[in-house]
Write the structure tokens for this entry.
Amino acid sequence: MTSPFTFKPLEIPEELTPLRLRVRDFLKDIGKDWSGWKVGHSWTGFDKEFSRAVGAEGWIGMTWPKQYGGGERSHLERFVVVEEMLAVGAPLGAHWFGDRQSGPLLLRLGTEQQRQRFLPEIVRGNATFCIGLSEPNAGSDLAAIKSRAKKVHGGWRLSGTKIWTTNAQHSDLMIGLFRTGTGDEKLKHQGLSQFLIDMKSSGIDVRPIRDLTGEAHFNEIFFDDVFVPADMLVGVEGDGWSQATSELAFERSQPDRFMSCFPVLPPLIDDIRQQGNIDRLSARKIGATLADLVILREMSLSVLGQLAEGHAPAQEAALVKDLGNSHEQQIPNLVRELADCQATIERGNRLSELQGFLTQNVPSYSLRGGTREILRGIIAKGLGLR
Amino acid sequence: MSNTMNDETSIGTLMAEQVERLLSREVTRERLIAVEQGTFDTPLWQALEEMGITLALAPESAAGAGLSWQDAEPTLRAAGSWAAPVPLGESLLATWALGSVGLEIPEGPIAVAEGVFRLDHNQHISGTDALVPWIQHCQHLVVVAEQSGQRFVCLLNRDEVSLETVETFARIPSSRVVASGATPVAIAAADNIIGELGLLPALATLRTVQIAGVLDRLLALCVEYGNTREQFGRPIGKFQAIQHLIADMAAQTAAAQVAGLYACRQIDKGNGEYGAAIAKARGGLAATRGAEAAHQIFGAMGFTDEHILHYYSRRLWQWRDEAGSEHWWAERLGRRVLAQSGDELWRGISG
Ligand SMILES: Cc1cc2nc3c(=O)[nH]c(=O)nc-3n(C[C@H](O)[C@H](O)[C@H](O)COP(=O)(O)OP(=O)(O)OC[C@H]3O[C@@H](n4cnc5c(N)ncnc54)[C@H](O)[C@@H]3O)c2cc1C
């Protein structure tokens, strides 16, 4: 009876320290005026200028082949860059979805022409991608999507509605999942296909949805007979379900799933220090948070190592996201417990701004990218519960 | 799941598989009870000795296998997962400590004291340890003693110390140990592997790995029970509430496993105290959550003496408190973090 999980360790070698320090210097300079409110947005914060600067440093598409503008660097190098960015809550949103998800998808399944056209643009921080999966009546039950793509001469015509699409209002392209086969209820995982959609196509209407923070990060998108050329189909017609779900081990195990609140910890620590005597509860809570974080990071690195070796540790990745989301969601509670939080959001006070934004934003962490309940269902099934 | 990942058949994994086979055959409820009642499981200990397992962490110069802690981790975890009723982990730790300072390793099982004792100028040792498991069955005890800021690994004969039986959750024979001017069998200055906390970090590492092992086992038992126990005309594992309890157990199990291995790797790198602090702070929490979930899943049956569950859950309650609870270690970590400005936090994590 051995463990059902594999978490072979992966260490970051010392040779990567210069890279880490370079990223740190870069961020110190470019981020010197970022407010607490802004860094609270972390990897969903949209800042195209920043993304272009990151691209110019060669830190987008780092692992991709040089022929597409990539850096042919290791996954560990990318990990170092990413975690340094997340540690300061850098606004990665304008390139993150392309770098984390859409680019790797095109590398794996895209046509040569698609790769040559889009990957170099992602790498430069020019092409912003959004992910069009959810629909008004298809959230957790993603295979219930109704938006359709109809085959026409020279391509496809898309119609239907996507919703909750993060940063769609700023995006150049969407990877969208549409129904191309029959609408047979029993075969709902079949007949789905992924398309590369130019967000400037006529017939696309993007309507930002204001969220509870008072800002608009996600959108509702109406497709009214939108033409997509045949060469913008991604992968194989009808294989959209397995294509979309096979990305999940990448999407679910990275540090963005447990570091979204990290930037509030340094000002919290400074606040506790200013209170004078370090009490026992504060020390214990801070220590426990650190331990949790270090272990999550080890788990994430381990999954990364397995992915780099060509394995698909879907269970391990789901565990990282579930534990990671719980970790980051608890952090605003920790701040309330250990610092004297006011019932006001004080602009200009870093701790207060971060706490103000994060308190309102953390409910989304265990929804986006698969809800906690869905993840736990996947984990339980994977363990052999029948 | 990805068991295919275990493609490296290192000595460490081979050894663990051997131990696993032995323990799955030998460790029955009857033998667990016998040990709780004070009988030493001599056949099991001898079988482990014959397989060469008890010297896994001892250097080759001492006829050991010279494994690293990382290599030994699967074996220690397997011992935890079968609640092996012998001081295997303690003895491995003791032989590692003796071996790392070049001391000769005595025969038989060896107990370990976690507290740091005092060494006076006549080379006599004094000190107290509130809880030393297995000492009744071990002729020898390894302690770390301090003299003017320098630490020594000492081998003591049990007859040199006084014992007072203590009660524990695990019901493994254990004693409070008092040494008053005990004469050691052997003594050697400890190199920098042994820090100010003596053997506590290594013991906390061992307990975390054992916790991970117990959780592995509990998880398997819960999955099996979920698939077989029926209520309302279907297996309880069909209920989403049960599935989610088991999924959380899985997450805690995975975290404990990673924590234990992390601590082992840190000992190998000479950073044992930090590794143990991180690992025990996380592993103790996993023990708490795992025991809670397992007891909920097993219902009243799991609350009986007759059922095997409590041999595991009592060990979880034991080991989360031994060698520093998760809260004790978290406080130490926290004080370290809070001694520096907030900006240092990330530097400490990222190295
Ligand atoms: C901030 C944010 C950004 C997002 N960005 C994107 C994006 O860029 N692209 C995109 O496509 N989508 C995006 N989403 C949508 C996200 O993927 C969905 O919110 C998610 O899949 C859940 O769907 P739902 O919100 O419709 O909730 P529902 O599926 O309706 O779920 C409601 C509740 O019921 C529970 N539930 C549902 N089914 C089950 C079940 N079988 N068992 C137990 N419980 C169940 C859920 O866990 C949840 O608690 C985003 C969401 C948020 C909050």
